[in-house]
Amino acid sequence: QYSYQLRNYDIDELQKLANAFDDMGDELNGTIRKLRHQKMKVESVLAALNEGIIVIDKEGQITQINDFASDMLKLKASNFYQKPIVDIIRAEKFQKLIRRAFEEAQYGATELIMGDMIIDTMIAPVGNGHKVYEYLIVLRDVTQIRNLEEMKYQFVSNVSHELKTPLTSIQGFVETLKAGAIEDPN
């Protein structure tokens, strides 16, 4: 308990030492409060994101995951901590992404198809310079976006196909008229 104050001493040197301990306890108490506040803030941000966040260590084991990622991957809390990420997400593209990120310690991205979902996956090293401490994996469900892109492509394709037939007919009539049919009333 860092808030506990030492008692008063008659010996001046002991009193100075007690005061130093009290000051140090106050500083530690303040630092611990700040760290708890920062931790709560980070956890709140991670929980509020509409993206899956996974933190893995240098060995590839999951150290932190937000609820969105665990829901997306259909994981239960007891099933993933301290387990290798490559045992949980077995897609070959993901395995390559992880290997390359570990070997080169750099950013990487790929798109995975998992069941009926299309997941945009990004991995980034966390550290300073060439010293990597952890890796941050961001998972984003882009299924709806890809479906809308496919619908747009199909719409444009269908419209262009439907316009080709009347345009071909009109072009044929114009060529007939240019060839001299304009002078022939029949």
Task: Please describe what this structure looks like.
The protein is built from 5 helices and 5 strands. Strands 2-1-5-4-3 form a 5-stranded antiparallel sheet, sandwiched between helices. It starts with 11 loop residues before the first helix and ends in a 5-residue tail after the last helix. The mean pLDDT is 85.
Summarize the helices and strands and which ones pair or pack.
Blueprint: H1 12-48, E1 52-57, E2 62-65, H2 67-72, H3 85-88, H4 92-104, E3 108-114, E4 117-128, E5 131-141, H5 143-181
Antiparallel strand pairs: 1-2, 1-5, 3-4, 4-5
How far apart the termini lie comes to 108 Å
Low-confidence stretches: none
Strand order of the largest sheet: 2-1-5-4-3
| Count of helix runs | 5
Short description:
The protein has helices at residues 12-48, 67-72, 85-88, 92-104, 143-181, and strands at residues 52-57, 62-65, 108-114, 117-128, 131-141. By secondary structure, the protein is of the alpha+beta class.
List keywords for this structure.
single chain; 186 residues; alpha+beta; five-stranded antiparallel beta sheet; 53% helix; elongated
